[in-house]
């Protein structure tokens, strides 16, 4: 008897996805490496290319991917001149971690842990206790932050070890649960303007013999989402943030290392049915699905009990040529969320996990109207989303 033939190309193999460099070159490895260089207990220098400094500042620019920076030398001349300094002078980027999205990446930066451990593995994920989707960026619906993410931050460890530790960012972030679980420790300083943040970060660095300072700029990401990374608005923001980096670099006190990095890159997706697949209009994709989590390029799909294998099969048949489609256990085994997934995090992951390879989105026009209207998007494991700079300036 002849075997049945597959009437379209085989789906992408789960193992072909480019897994982030957890343990040696991901965002989660940055702060532990810097803290270890200052002698902070319970931290490990995991990025071997970096040299210890008494004072370190991490300036995280939301949405500044490695590929976007390299493509815009005229708008970012100062940072472009620093490209060869990235990752300890190797000229190589870091990887963000999966998914490449703000809540996940900021938690990875602050805790020094991959998503499978810190437990913020997506834009929205299922809370197993309530069976509801939780937005981990906005922390809605509210749940106890310390139950959701129980590990100490690297800032807390550094502060306890006598290192001067501070976060210099927008006042709006001071009391948010995401700040509490990911970036707390030491002192928080809220400043509205980017220039004020740069000046205060430099002051905080100079105020301690050992110092670990974090500062942040979000407006580049906002312009990318709204107008796209090929827009004048985005390029204008890049020009502004390039000047901010130079402003901070020129004020560094002695024995300081400044590291400029990002939480993810970004890709513009055309507004047509070929590139934007609408879950709310597709009965095949909706069949057997109880909840749709994540975001357009990094979906967590939660099946009705008993329908897990059917949903996996359907999503692979419909999307498997454009997305890496994995079951929860396949994604864990492949290391998508790190080398280990904590028991409390396991059920937060989708029964099916879908990561885009091609220039496509799974939107949900009725459930997620604002997210579905964004020009620039991110989340998956492609280089344009995953790779982020680690530019270095030393004084």
Notable characteristics:
disordered N terminus; 4-stranded antiparallel beta sheet; 395 residues; globular; alpha/beta
Task: Summarize it.
The protein is α/β, with parallel strands linked by helices. It is built from 18 helices and 18 strands. The N terminus is likely disordered.
Radius of gyration, in Å, reads 21 Å
Strand content: 15-25%
Distance between the termini: 74 Å
- Total count of helical runs of at least 4 residues: 18
Helix content: 25-40%
Structural class label: alpha/beta
Major sheet? 6 strands, mixed
Structural overview:
Strand 11 (289-295) and strand 12 (298-303) form a beta hairpin. It is globular and about 60 Å long. The strands form six sheets. The protein has a six-stranded mixed beta sheet, sandwiched between helices. A four-stranded antiparallel beta sheet has the order 11-12-14-13. Strands 2-17 form a two-stranded antiparallel sheet. It has helices at residues 30-37, 66-70, 77-81, 86-89, 102-111, 115-118, 145-148, 154-160, 177-182, 194-206, 219-227, 232-249, 283-286, 308-319, 328-333, 343-346, 369-372, 383-386, and strands spanning 55-61, 94-95, 124-127, 132-135, 164-169, 187-190, 211-217, 256-261, 267-268, 276-278, 289-295, 298-303, 323-327, 352-356, 361-363, 376-377, 387-388, 391-394. The protein is α/β, with parallel strands linked by helices and 395 residues long. The model is unreliable at 1-6 (pLDDT under 50).
């Amino acid at each position: 008897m002849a075997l049945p033939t597959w009437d379209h190309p085989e789906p992408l193999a789960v193992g072909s996805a480019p897994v982030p460099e957890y343990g040696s070159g991901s965002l989660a490895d940055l702060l532990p490496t810097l803290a270890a260089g200052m002698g902070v207990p319970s931290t490990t220098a995991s990025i071997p290319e970096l040299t210890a400094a008494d004072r370190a500042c991490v300036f995280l620019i939301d949405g500044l991917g490695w590929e976007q920076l390299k493509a815009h030398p005229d708008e970012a001349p100062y940072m472009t001149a620093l490209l060869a300094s990235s990752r300890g002078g190797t000229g190589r980027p870091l990887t963000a971690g999966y998914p490449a999205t703000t809540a996940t990446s900021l938690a990875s930066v602050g805790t020094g842990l991959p998503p499978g451990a810190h437990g913020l593995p997506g834009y929205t994920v299922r809370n197993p206790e309530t069976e509801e989707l939780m937005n981990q960026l906005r922390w809605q619906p509210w749940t106890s932050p310390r139950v959701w993410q129980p590990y100490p931050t690297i800032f807390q460890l550094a502060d306890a070890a006598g290192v001067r530790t501070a976060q210099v960012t927008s006042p709006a972030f001071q009391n948010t649960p995401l700040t509490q679980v990911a970036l707390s420790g030491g002192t928080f300083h809220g400043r509205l303007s980017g220039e004020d943040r740069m000046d205060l970060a430099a002051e905080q660095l100079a105020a301690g013999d050992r110092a670990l300072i974090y500062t942040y700029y979000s407006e580049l990401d906002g312009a990318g989402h709204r107008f796209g990374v090929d827009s004048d608005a985005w390029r204008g923001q890049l020009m502004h943030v390039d000047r901010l980096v130079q402003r901070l670099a020129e004020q560094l006190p002695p024995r300081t290392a400044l590291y400029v990095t990002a939480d993810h890159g970004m890709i513009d997706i055309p507004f047509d049915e070929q590139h934007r697949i609408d879950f709310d209009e597709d009965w095949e994709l909706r069949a057997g699905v109880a909840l749709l989590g994540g975001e357009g390029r990094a979906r967590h799909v939660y099946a009705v009990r008993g329908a897990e294998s059917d949903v996996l099969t359907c999503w692979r048949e419909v999307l498997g040529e454009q997305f890496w489609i994995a079951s929860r256990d396949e994604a864990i085994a492949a290391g998508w969320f790190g080398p280990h997934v904590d028991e409390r995090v396991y059920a937060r992951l989708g029964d099916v996990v879908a990561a885009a390879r091609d220039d496509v989105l799974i939107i949900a026009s009725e459930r997620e109207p604002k997210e579905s209207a964004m020009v620039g998007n991110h989340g998956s494991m492609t280089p344009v989303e995953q790779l982020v700079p680690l530019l270095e300036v030393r004084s």
